[in-house]
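Key idea: predict the complex, not the pieces.
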Amino acid sequence: MGAHATLTRQLSTLLEEQYGLAMSEYEVLFLLSRQDDHAMRRIDLSREVRISPSGITRMLDRLEATGLVGKKACAKDARVTYAVLTDAGMKKLRECSPAHLAEVERLMGERLSEEEIESLSALLGRLSDLDDDCSIGD
Amino acid sequence: MGAHATLTRQLSTLLEEQYGLAMSEYEVLFLLSRQDDHAMRRIDLSREVRISPSGITRMLDRLEATGLVGKKACAKDARVTYAVLTDAGMKKLRECSPAHLAEVERLMGERLSEEEIESLSALLGRLSDLDDDCSIGD
DNA sequence: AGCAGATACTTGATTGTGCAACAGTTGACT
DNA sequence: AGTCAACTGTTGCACAATCAAGTATCTGCT
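Result:
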């Protein structure tokens, strides 16, 4: 808990102050950028970023208002709306990504060796569950 | 981030549903219970639980409303108000503590060996800026 | 003594999030 | 065809947490 608080506080203040992005918003932009078509279903975004569907709806509203993402309908399924990374969104991500990654590097590298980071990552990975039987909640 | 989300979601839903406590509220009760006089300054509580001073004020208001903690003035310094664990608060803590600790034990023990937990704890400790001795004695 | 700055705490406004409830869509099974 | 459960997404309400600003008190310095 302490480590999480320390790291997220540092990282989110950097993103917030320098680029006006919350960390979860950065995460969304990042996830979208990794898709071939730069698009994802809102529900999948919600699960990956670990916030509720309503949370995603509202975050995407904000990101649309600032022009970083857009909407796209799904031809196969009228229920789903894709979130799409716009050019402005891609630009924004490229803008803040270096500073963010450098900060991660600094926070970790200052205190842990390469192997330690490796083993920490492995251990934490085994504690993380993305596919959870008990509902993510809403 | 994933590990944190998984663990806190599990633990906080258990505490919330079974005992009507948020995890940070549990933390406060726990910290108070470890003091000899069952009392702490609000500011110290705030730092240890890692929420803002105003957050602590409001949380303690809630906990007072349900009778789990009380106030006590400080003789030496008129600025500070101690938060004191009441008997009801102590009872509540004893009530939910076993289930909470068992859940921690289950979540960790199911996936990590004794030594792995040990080294994870050491690594995370070095990433945390706060020197909180989280010795879950007993 | 008196002032300046730090410290402890509270309050008002704002924000992000979750839950419950809802509408629309899909797919499966009669 | 018709029905029903499951799924995607949105909205109203509630709530906890934050920041900024304010009050009160303490401490150190001249």
